[in-house]
């Protein structure tokens, strides 16, 4: 039995939008038409691809597996269309970027927009694990992450090295110092990002290697929240040196006695690295690094 392309396209649109209404709007078709296409696909194979709970639409386990396949299928279609439609000249196109920090990626996007005014962009910020997942799931075309990756499915380009530093509220007793040994964290309250953050992963590994146990750990969901918590006196914060911004409420501290160097990488799916938009992004971030 030949599979219906329109059924697959309808399924993919709903899975991507997580909504029949949103998918119908994106595809410029009526919701009944879209629902009929998905229902026909399900009935043809005697399967259920979505669980419909009230207004919520969730993929079944089978639907999740199919979505991985359709993501590859339609990503390849986008590449073919980009090549044939002339976006290799970068007169138009849309680039989806994921990053675990906006610090460096925004400058690269500004440079690309200046060179190619016809391009549009979407940027998603998350922790390092989320960023890598978006590349693997075809939810992003390129990404900037601090997480090193050794997966043949992912093309990786190292851009620069950074280092983790500590910071405290300006009235904290450690604020009188310019640097502290890693042993200073013993018995101290520490503010860190959520699990999945490379900042937390690297720092906790270094603490464990040195046999150091902080007193209490406050977990927050963003870099901004880490800064706010530290300024409010909840403990010592950890961030990348390049991301620390001078603030009269905060004091930066170099940490000695541990290797806190972390790389920054531009990544994409290996099979997509020659796509004109992706290749141009890699060239742009390399230019930026060379001029820094």
UniProtKB/TrEMBL annotation:
<dbReference type="InterPro" id="IPR036390">
    <property type="entry name" value="WH_DNA-bd_sf"/>
</dbReference>
<dbReference type="GO" id="GO:0000976">
    <property type="term" value="F:transcription cis-regulatory region binding"/>
</dbReference>
<protein>
    <submittedName>
        <fullName>Aminoethylphosphonate catabolism associated LysR family transcriptional regulator</fullName>
    </submittedName>
</protein>
<keyword id="KW-0804">Transcription</keyword>
<comment type="similarity">
    <text>Belongs to the LysR transcriptional regulatory family.</text>
</comment>
<feature type="domain" description="HTH lysR-type">
    <location>
        <begin position="3"/>
        <end position="60"/>
    </location>
</feature>
<dbReference type="Pfam" id="PF03466">
    <property type="entry name" value="LysR_substrate"/>
</dbReference>
<keyword id="KW-0238">DNA-binding</keyword>
<dbReference type="Pfam" id="PF00126">
    <property type="entry name" value="HTH_1"/>
</dbReference>
<dbReference type="InterPro" id="IPR005119">
    <property type="entry name" value="LysR_subst-bd"/>
</dbReference>
<dbReference type="GO" id="GO:0003700">
    <property type="term" value="F:DNA-binding transcription factor activity"/>
</dbReference>
<dbReference type="InterPro" id="IPR036388">
    <property type="entry name" value="WH-like_DNA-bd_sf"/>
</dbReference>
<dbReference type="InterPro" id="IPR000847">
    <property type="entry name" value="LysR_HTH_N"/>
</dbReference>
<keyword id="KW-0805">Transcription regulation</keyword>
């Amino acid at each position: 039995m030949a599979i219906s392309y329109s059924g697959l396209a309808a399924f993919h649109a709903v899975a991507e939008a997580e909504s029949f209404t949103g998918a119908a709007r994106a595809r410029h078709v009526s919701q009944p038409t879209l629902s009929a296409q998905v229902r026909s696909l399900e009935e043809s194979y005697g399967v259920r691809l979505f669980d419909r709970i009230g207004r919520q639409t969730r993929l079944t386990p089978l639907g999740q597996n199919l979505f991985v396949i359709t993501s590859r299928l339609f990503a390849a279609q986008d590449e073919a269309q980009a090549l044939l439609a002339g976006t290799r000249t970068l007169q138009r196109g849309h680039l989806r970027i994921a990053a675990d920090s906006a610090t460096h990626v925004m400058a690269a996007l500004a440079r690309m927009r200046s060179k190619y005014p016809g391009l549009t962009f979407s940027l998603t910020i998350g922790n390092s694990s989320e960023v890598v997942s978006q590349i693997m799931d075809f939810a992003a075309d390129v990404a900037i992450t601090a997480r090193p990756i050794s997966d043949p499915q992912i093309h990786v380009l190292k851009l620069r090295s950074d280092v983790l530093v500590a910071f405290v509220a300006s009235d904290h007793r450690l604020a009188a110092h310019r640097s502290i040994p890693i042993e200073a964290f013993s018995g101290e309250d520490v503010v860190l990002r959520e699990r999945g953050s490379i900042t937390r992963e690297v720092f906790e590994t270094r603490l464990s290697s040195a046999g150091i146990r902080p007193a209490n750990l406050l977990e927050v969901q963003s870099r901004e929240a880490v800064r706010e918590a530290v300024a409010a006196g909840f403990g010592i914060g950890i961030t990348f040196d390049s991301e620390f911004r001078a603030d009269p409420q905060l004091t930066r501290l170099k940490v000695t006695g541990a290797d806190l160097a972390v790389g920054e990488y531009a990544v994409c799916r290996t099979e997509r690295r020659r796509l004109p938009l992706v290749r141009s992004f890699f060239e742009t971030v390399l230019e930026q690094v060379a001029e820094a």
